[in-house]
Amino acid sequence: MRWNDWAEFWVMGGYALYVWGSVGATVLLMLIEVWVAKRQHLQTLSMLQSNHPSSTHQGS
User: Fold this and answer.
1) CB of 9 within 8 A of CB of 3?
2) Which of the two residues, 9 and 30, has the higher pLDDT score?
3) Distance between CA 44 and CA 32 in Å, rounded?
4) DSSP 54
5) Is 41 part of a structural domain of the chain?
6) Is residue 54 part of a domain?
7) Is the pLDDT of residue 30 over 90?
8) How many domains is the chain built from?
């Protein structure tokens, strides 16, 4: 598909709502995925640190 100017590109031949809506939903979901993964990673690190014996305690 060829566009004569940027306005035609952004309108996408009348399908802009579907195209840009899909792009927006995809980007939003990918950002949420990164946020959830980072939050879970930090929770896991916190859990591991709280369950791990102190590294300053040496037996002897």
Assistant:
1) yes
2) 30
3) 18
4) P
5) yes
6) no
7) yes
8) 1
